[in-house]
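agent> Task received from the user: take the single chain below, predict its 3D structure, and emit structure tokens. No templates, no multimer pairing.
agent> Plan: (1) validate residues, (2) run structure prediction, (3) serialize to tokens, (4) report one or two observations.
agent> Step 1 OK, no nonstandard residues flagged.
tool_call: predict_structure(input=
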Amino acid sequence: MKKALVVGCLLLVVSSSVWAATTEIVGGIRDGAALGLQLESAAARNLTVRGGIEFCTGKQPIIAFLGGKIPLTSLGRMPLSLGLGFIGYFGNNKTDAGVSLTFIFNRFLEITPLFLEVGIDVAGQGRLVAQLGYKVF
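)
tool_result: status=success, residues=137
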């Protein structure tokens, strides 16, 4: 199991160069304290594809997600986007799959690579999401 997780993380990092994607480190609250890697790549002018894996202290320790980000507006100098996607919570002999709806505030606290993501995951049950992320260029 540990080998599969290490290989999965390495594939995320290596595939970012193939995809011309931005690697992001994310952490926060997602059914417990969570930390993980995320990839983001522009698919069209107003659509960004996002995907990643996180490890969590909750009842299901592995979270994987794939979705998109659509720009909405700017709040001052902070762009606001809507994140929609599919999410899976894995572990403890149980798998919950569902959807995720989040709002992403880029350039949070006037720091360009920092972003704040807040929303809800509906996978088996509703779970609040509050995360900070840092884009590694």
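agent> Step 4: summary for the user.
The first strand starts at residue 22 and ends at 30.
agent> Done.
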